[in-house]
Amino acid sequence: MAAFTSAAVRRHRFEINFQAVFVLITASTLAFFLLIVTFFDNPFDSLWQLADGSTAAAFLQPSFSLPVIPANGQGMNPLLRHPGMIFHPPMQYLGFVSYVIPFGFAMAALITGQVDNRWIRLSRKWSLAAWLFLSLGLVLGARWAYDVLGWGGYWGWDPVETAALMPWLTGTAFLHSIYVQEKRAMLRRWNFVLITLTYLLVLFGTFISRSGIISSVHAFASSTVAILFFGFISLTAVFVLLMLYRHWNELSSENAVQSLLSREVLFLLNNAVFTGIALVCLWGVLFPVISETFTGQKVTVGPSYYESATGPLWVVVLLLMGIAPLTVFFRTSVSRLRTMILFPAAGSAVVLAILLLSGMRSAAALIGFTVLAFTTLVTLAEFWRSIHIRLSRGETIPQALKRTFSRNRRRYGGYLIHLGIILMAVGILGIELFQQDTQQTLKPGETLALGRYIVRYDDISFYETSGGIQQAKAEVTVSTNSRSAGVYLPRRDYYPSWGQSVTVPAIRSTLQDDLYIRLIDWGETKAEGVTLKLYLNPLFNFLWLGTGVLVLGTLAAAGPLFGRKEEKGKEPHACVSTD
Amino acid sequence: MPVSRQTELKSKLLPFLLPPAVLPALLLALLLLFMAVPIHAASAQEATPPPDDAVNAVAAQIYCPVCDGVTLDACETKACEQWREDIRDRLAAGWTEEEILGYFAEQYGDQVLAAPPPRGFSLLIYIVPAAGIVTGAFFLTRSIWRWRTQGQEEARTSIRVPNQEAKTADGKHDAEHTGE
Fold it and tell me: Among A67, A126, A136, A362, which is most exposed with the fewest C-beta within 10 angstroms?
C-alpha cells in the first residue's frame, strides 16, 4: 500500500493540500492494518513455555519462559499446494490494496473541497487495475477450488468467496459510473458513496477472509480484532457521510436526464443492479450472525439463496450490457435504436428457435442464452461498424483493428471486457444448469457412463512419495462413441503429518465439456474395485477462456497494449498545482 | 318435472351402474393394493440398497455438521461417510427426502440445511432482499422520472431544439465509432 501511494504521488504531481490528505488517508489505512498485525494478531508470534508449564503465543519472550521449538515443521496445508494458490492470494490482495488509492483520491477531494471531476480522472486507471486484480483473484480462486477441493464445482457462495465478490460488484459499478460523471457531470454524490462502499467492502472482505469469524457470534463478540474492524468501518462510514453532507449542494448534478433512452440512464440502472447484487450478498453473509444474535439459531445461507435472489439481477445486468452500447449520452433517437436493434434481436430470436428445436426446455437456460446471444451480437456489431467504416476508407484489416482500439481505447476495451464476461457467463450457465454427476463402485473391467462418456476401471496402485505422501492412484480408460479418449489417473493423496487427504481429480477438458473423475473409495486389492464419482460440466472451459478475453480487454482499455505512446503525454494531469 | 328427468337419466345410465355388492369389494381390493405397494417397495429396496446417486442427491442438500461450508456428498471425513450410510439406510427404510432433511435439521440444527427453512425469524432472509429490490426499484424510477422532467424543462428553456440535439447525439455516436 505504501508502494502504491508513493507511485500515485510520483505519477500524478498533486496540488499540495490534495497530496497531504491523500497520503494521510492511505497511511491511516496502512496504520490500521499495522496496528492489528503488531498488537493483536501478529503472524510472527512464537510459542513460549511459561513458568507454570502452560504455553502462550507472543512476539517477544515473556519473562521466565522458554521457547517452544517444534521438532519438525508440518509444512504447508496440503490443500494449498496448488499453482492457483501461488497467484490467487497476491491478486486478491493487490485488488484490495489498489482500491484504497481511488478511495484516497475521493477523500482528498472531499476534504480539500476539490469536488470537481479531477479525482474521477485520477481514479480511472487505478480502479481499472484494482478491478483487474480482483477479477483475476476471484477466477484463480475458482480454479483452485475446481482442481483441489474435488467437488466438481468452482464457486460455493461461501462467506469468504462472497465477501471477495462484493467489492468486485461495487467496483464494476464504479467503473461505469465514473464514465457518466466524466461525460455528463452527473452521479457526483453517488460516486463518492460507491467508492466508499467499495473501500468498506474491501475492509470487510479482508476481515472475513482472514478471520472466518462470521460463522459464530461468540467468536465474533470475544474478538478484539472484530471490534477494531467494525469500529474502523463505522467511523469511516460516518466520516464520509458527514463530509458528503458538507458538500451536498456543491455536488448536485450539473445536468439532468433528458431522455430515458440515454446512456446515462442505462448506466445508472447498471449501477443500481450491481449495488443491489452486492447488498443481497451482504445480507446473505451477515444473516447467520444476525439470526444467531436474535434467536440463538445458527443457520446456513447456501447457494440456493444467492442463486434465486441474484439470478434475475444477473439477467438484467447482461441485458443492460446489450442495450447500453446502442444508446448515446443525452438522447437516443428511437428510429436509430430500432434499426440498430433489429439485427441482434433477429439473431437472438434465431438462437432461441434453435434452442427450442433442439429440445431445450429449461426456462433459465432459454432466457440466459437468448440474452447472451443478443448482447454478443450487439457487441460484435459495434466492432463491425468501426472496422467497416475504416475498411471502406482503404485501411487494411490489422490497421483497422488496431486503430479501432487506439482511437477509443475505453469504449472498445470495454466491449472486449463485455465479450469476456459473456464467454464466462456461457461457462457458468453450462455448469450451473447442466452439470450431471453419477457415482458407482466398479470392479475391474466394469464401466460407468455419463453423458457422452464411458469410463472403465482398469487398475489401482499405491505409492509412497519421497515426501511421505501416501498415494492411491486409479487407472481408468475414458471413451466416447466407442473411441478411446485416453487413460486418466484420479488419485487420493494422504498426508500423514496433517492426517488429511486431498482428492486429485482427473479432468478431461474440452471446449464442449469437462469430464471430472474423482476417486472416492477403494478396496485393498485391485479386484475389490473402486468407487468413482463422475461429473460432467458442459461448456465450463468458456469460463477460463472468457477470463483471458477479459484480461485483454482490460489491458486494451487501460492502454499499454494497444494504446499509442504519444497519448501518454496527453494524460490529463488533474489536481496539478497551478501556481 | 325435475324428478322425471332424474329417473330418465338413471334409466339411461342403468347398463353402466354396478350391482351394489361390487362397490365395497372393489374398494377393499384397492385398499389392499395400496397397502401392498409400500410393503413390496420396501422389500425390493432391502434386497438392493439405494444406489450412491440416490444417496448423493439427498446428501448434496445437507451441509456437513462438523466442517464449514461443505455439503455432505462432497465431504471426505469419516463422520460424513457414516452420515451418508445413515441416509442410505433411511432411504432403504422408505423415508422420503423431506423426512430425511427434517430429521437432520432436528438432530443437528437448521444450519445443516443449505438454506434456512422459511419460517419464523428466518423468513427475513427471503423478505428483506425482495422488499429491498422493490423499494429500490420504486425510488430509482421516481428519481429518474423527476430528473427527466427537470431535464426536459431545461431542454425546453435552452436554445437548442431537442430534435437537433438528437441529431448531434447520433452524429456523435458515429464519431465515437471512429474516434474522430
Answer: A67
The string of pLDDT tens digits covering residues B83-141 is: 999 999 999 999 999 999 999 988 888 888 888 888 888 889 989 999 999 999 999 88
Residue A189 CB neighbour total at 10 angstroms? 16
Cell numbers at A131, concatenated: 478491478
With CB atoms and an 8 Å threshold, state whether A280 touches B129: yes
Who among A159, A253, A299 is closest to B111 (CB)?
A299
Neighbours of B56 (CB within 10 A): 20
Whether residue B178 contacts residue A407, with contact meaning beta carbons closer than 8 Å, is answered with yes
Beta bridge partners of A535: A437, A516
Assess B147–A contact: CB distance below 8 Å, yes or no: yes
CA A292 to chain centroid, in Å, comes to 29
Amino acid code (one letter) for A339: T
Closest CA to A201 of A117, A85, A298, A92: A92
Residue A573 pLDDT class (50, 70, 90 cuts): very low
A500: pLDDT confidence band, cut at 50, 70 and 90?
confident
Which one has a higher pLDDT value, B158 or A86?
A: A86
Let me know: does A331 contact A325? Beta carbons within 8 Å: no
Provide the CATH number for the domain formed by B50-114 in this structure. Answer: 1.10.8.640
CA distance A490 to A324: 46
User: CA of A279, closest CA in chain B: separation in Å?
Assistant: 8
Which three cell numbers mark A315?
A: 439477467
Residues of chain A in contact with residue B138, where contact means CB-CB under 8 angstroms, are: none
Q: Are A438 and B54 in contact (CB under 8 A)?
A: no
Q: Which of B76, B126, B166 sits opposite A333 (nearest CB)?
A: B166
Contact B113/A256, CB-based, under 8 Å? Answer: no
Encoded amino acid at A428, one letter:
I
Q: Give the count of Cβ contacts less than 8 A between chain A and B.
A: 160
State how far the Cα of A130 lies from the Cα of A133, in Å rounded to an integer. 5
What is the Rg, in whole angstroms, of the alpha carbon atoms belonging to chain A? 27
Q: Which residues are paired to A472 by β-bridges?
A: A462, A492
* Chain B residues inside the 8 Å CB shell of A505: none
| pLDDT > 90 in chain A, percent | 47
End-to-end CA distance of chain B: 91
Q: What is the pLDDT of residues A98-119, one digit of tens each?
A: 999 999 999 999 999 888 888 9
Q: Is the pLDDT of residue A68 over 80?
A: no
Which has more confidence, B110 or A564?
B110
State the virtual CA torsion across A539, A541, A547, A548 in degrees, nearest 10.
-120
Closest approach of B78 to chain A, Cα-based (Å): 11
A425 and A372 in contact (C-beta within 8 Å)? Answer: yes
ipTM for the complex shown: 0.73
Query: Is A390–B76 a contact, with Cβ atoms under 8 angstroms apart?
Result: no
CB pair distance less than 8 Å for A328 and B176: yes
Asked whether the beta carbons of A214 and A284 are under 8 A apart, the reply is no
pLDDT attached to residue A332: 75
Distance CA A65, CA A448 (A): 61
Amino acid at A101: I
Residue A393 has a CB neighbour count (10 Å cut-off) of: 10
Contact B125 A385 (CB under 8 A): no
Domain positions in chain B: 50-114, 122-178
**Most confident residue range from A144-153, A287-296, A462-471, B129-138:** B129-138
Compute the average pLDDT of residues A81-89. 79
Between CA A160 and CA B5 the distance in angstroms is 75
Q: Give residues with Cβ within 8 angstroms of B38, minimum separation 6.
A: B94
- CA A552 – CA A135 distance, rounded (Å): 13
Who has greater pLDDT, B72 or A420? Answer: A420
